[in-house]
Specification:
This protein is an all-alpha fold. It is built from 10 helices and 2 strands. Helix 1 packs antiparallel against helix 6 and helix 7 packs antiparallel against helix 8.
Length: 247
């Protein structure tokens, strides 16, 4: 695609959230065709394939980080320029908000039919099965560590962005399926405690959209919202340092 890395990250993250949030909406909201269908298995598979779609779209242009934790991890490992980190994170946040809003519009009749506010919020952002902030934080750290370490092991070829040579800058199109599978297995193996945000933009952007939509009795749970922001960033940074040590 003849577009900038910023736009590629934005579009890729938009598709990621549109499809990922969409599957949760399909099984959680009232009167959908998918209501009540084996939700966890469907959700983990669909999020993995949503990552596959986002990476396939953006991989050859931006490296398809689609996640601030991945961007930080690659930068810490010396695989990505720190000067590009702010623009990538901004693109990811905007894309996450846009994808979440598009999903809301697509399912708006079903959002109106759903009165259980916990179910509505769950379509936008994550929450803990057992609220224990220390353990919730550790779960997000370890899940993101696995994601970023695997991404660092898969990263694609060198490219030039804005005149800067980026060594192993991110994920190419051929790497889209492996990283999607990684996300699936993280969800199945490590996602039962916090819902595996493993991506600050994926959680914060939609949570912000949820806080802005016109609903009564909203509870955005901003107190918990720091966990899926801080945990993935720590996990990504630790994965970057660990990758340097072993290589």
């Amino acid at each position: 695609m003849n577009i900038s890395p910023f736009i590629a990250e934005l579009i890729g993250t938009t598709f990621l959230l549109l499809l990922g949030q969409g599957v949760v909406a399909n099984v959680k909201l009232k009167k959908t065709i998918g209501e009540g269908q084996n939700p966890w298995l469907l959700i983990t598979f669909a999020w993995g394939f949503a990552v596959f779609v986002g990476v396939f779209i953006a991989g050859s242009v931006s490296g398809a980080h689609l996640n601030p934790a991945v961007t930080f991890g690659l930068a810490v490992a010396g695989k990505f320029s720190w000067s590009l980190v702010p623009s990538y994170i901004l693109a990811q946040l905007i894309g996450a908000m846009l994808g979440s809003w598009l999903c809301y519009i697509a399912y708006i009749d079903h959002y109106r039919e759903t009165k259980n506010e916990d179910d509505v919020r769950a379509t936008f952002c994550t929450g803990p099965a057992i609220r224990n902030y220390k353990n919730n934080l550790f779960a997000e750290i370890i899940g993101t560590f696995v994601l970023v370490f695997c991404a660092l092991s898969i990263v694609g070829p060198n490219i030039h962005i804005e005149g800067i040579n980026i060594e192993n800058f991110g994920l190419g199109s051929i790497d889209a399926l492996p990283i999607g599978i990684v996300v699936m297995v993280i969800g199945m193996g490590l996602g039962g405690n916090t819902g595996f945000a493993i991506n600050p933009a994926r959680d914060f952007g939609p949570r912000l959209v949820y806080s802005l939509i016109p609903r009564e009795n909203k509870n955005s749970d901003w107190v918990y919202s720091l966990i899926p922001i801080i945990g993935p960033i720590i996990g990504g940074i630790l994965a970057g340092y660990f990758f340097i040590v072993i290589t």
